[in-house]
Design goal:
By secondary structure, the protein is an alpha/beta fold. 33% of the residues lie in helices and 26% in strands.
Length: 226
């Protein structure tokens, strides 16, 4: 049954890619991305009570008010990043660790920030048990990024930001790509692709309408600590 559900998930991703091609410009995804979607055990990254829905093409709750994104969106965001084997990627919003695992099979190193300590600890433990050794997770505010390991070849944000955080733009390597949902919580949000050219100039475009949980932290969180 698991193999059947996995195959259905992959077919759904392929169908969604074709249906949204006029918006994304991507009628299909890189075979490496699809192979990673096939190999990473998505059912290991959902709550036990959600196992039967693990391969559904929709987001699922993972606790702490957070979600694991729908498979199609994970595949699309990964494909937009155009990950390469020698690259280092920064992820903002570890969540269950699923997106980090997808990326870990495609790049050299993944650094992932999670603002909720319990999720960070659970994801780190799970990824280690599953054998992922090229992922490092830290508890921190995604708005400030992880400057110690910058610049990054790619940055992926898995929660909706109200704006493009300048720190993340600064930590993106010239020639790099940043994928981020931007907009207000649970309302009008756009998945954006931001590219930095070799001269450091930025080009941003909207890819698709999306709905993500909000990116927390930032100025509001810092003000609340005073």
């Amino acid at each position: 049954m698991r193999a059947i559900r996995l195959r259905e998930m992959l077919h759904t991703i392929e169908r969604e890619a074709r249906l949204t091609a006029s918006l994304t410009g991507r009628p299909s995804f890189d075979p490496r991305v699809m192979e990673s979607m096939e190999e990473v055990p998505r059912d290991s990254f959902v709550l036990p009570e959600m196992i039967d829905r693990a391969f559904d093409d929709g987001p699922l709750p993972i606790g702490e008010g957070q979600t694991i994104s729908q498979p199609y969106i994970v595949a699309l965001m990964t494909d937009l990043l155009e990950p390469q084997p020698t690259q280092t990627i920064l992820e903002i919003g570890t969540g269950s660790g699923y997106q980090a695992a997808i990326l870990a099979q495609l790049v050299q190193q993944v650094y992932s920030l999670e603002i909720i300590p319990s999720l960070a600890a659970e994801a780190a433990d799970l990824l280690l048990r599953l054998g992922y050794t090229n992922i490092e997770i830290k508890v921190g505010d995604g708005h400030t990024g992880w400057p110690e390991h910058a610049p990054y070849d790619g940055i992926i944000i898995t929660a909706a930001a109200s704006h493009l955080p300048q720190a993340l733009i600064d930590q993106l390597r010239p020639g790099g790509r940043l994928v981020i949902p931007v907009g207000q919580p649970y309302s009008s949000q756009k998945l954006m692709l931001v590219e930095k050219d070799l001269a450091g100039r930025m080009d941003a475009r909207d890819v698709l309408n999306v709905v993500f949980v909000p990116m927390t932290g930032g100025v509001r969180a810092r003000n609340n600590n005073h």
